[in-house]
Amino acid sequence: MQDFATRTEPHRRELLAHCYRMLGSVHEAEDLVQETLVRAWKAWAGYDPARASVRTWLYRIATNACLTALEGRARRPLPSGLGGPGEDPGAPLTPSLEIPWLQPFPDARLDDPGLRLARRGTLRLALLAAMQTLPPKQRAVLILRDVLEFSAAEVAGFLDTTPAAVNSALQRARTGLGGLTADEVPEPDDAAVEAVLDRYVRAFERADVTGLVGLLTDDVVMEMPPVPLWFRGRGDYGRFMERLFAMRGPEWRMTRTAANGRPALAAYCRDGAGGYRLHTLQSLTVRGARIAHNVVFAAPAVLALFGLPGTQPATRASDGRP
Questions:
Q1: Angstrom distances, CA of residue 241 to CA of 84, 231, 237, 244, 247
Q2: Are 63 and 15 in contact (CB under 8 A)?
Q3: CA 32, CA 66: separation in Å to the nearest integer?
Q4: How many CB atoms lie within 10 A of CB 322?
């Protein structure tokens, strides 16, 4: 079976991204990739290269494994998908652990020059949250057609249906996204993003609420799974940050990382023992020269995905970079 490993292993990471788009969970996606490869190994003797490439064959197996896994499961939302914005930045921060929240995807898992991945912007959290509202088969069609660019005939073969049914499902899925699209979103240039992030890190590490608020769009959104609260607007964002710094103290360190094709920051607060402990991961969307969206993750299982150190010494000279 050495040929099997040689032919399938190069596709493991892109299959992980595909299963993640379908499921919204890195942990579940990893399990489904493993299941896909087990199914493929068992069927390898019957694989016919004249009918499909190994990549296409694996995507068919992975898609159907995901659809089976999604049967009867609740969607994975972000807080903004559950209701309107909060009106009280001082409200209790009570986590809803029974909700299967959408997880972030560490960009480090995609950093492979030889990887045949679809456009990185299609992993953005807002799009994935919208995809989660679609019925699983519509979600699969949208990802396979608009993200991975398989033909309608190929997708019909994956799902044992017709190209006409695939095209119909694709139109319903696009409508269901409510204006979002799987196309690339224009990004600010690297220099503009870097300038915003540098200023954000400096302001956050100084607990400078005025400085932070000055970097936000007027309609900025902050959400904090597993806490179901979310806020819209610079005023509530600023008031929440005042509350955070009052609770956790004014001394912070930040480390750069990346999630879902977007910049992210790991925030460390004083731990009471002379150092800093990992507090949250902030996944940021920069629009123009301002921060438009911040999804703040606090669940230990999510933080562990990024391989971040749990503590930092007080003596580290921080510029927000690893």
A1: 20, 12, 6, 5, 10
A2: no
A3: 7
A4: 8
DSSP track, 238-290: HHHHHHHHHHH-S-EEEEEEEETTEEEEEEEEE-SSSSEEEEEEEEEEEETTE
Contacts of 190 (CB under 8 A, 6+ apart): none
Q: Does the pLDDT of residue 195 top 50, yes or no?
A: yes
Beta bridge partners of 295: 223, 283
Backbone angles phi, psi at 221, to 5 degrees: -115, 135
Q: Measuring CA to CA, which residue among 318, 227, 212 is closest to residue 269?
A: 318
Q: Which pTM was predicted?
A: 0.91
pLDDT per position as a tens digit, 110-128: 765 444 444 567 888 999 9
Rounded-to-integer distance, Cα 97 and Cα 298, Å? 12
The two tokens of residue 157 are: 């073969």
Alpha-carbon distance of 135 to 59, in angstroms, equals: 19
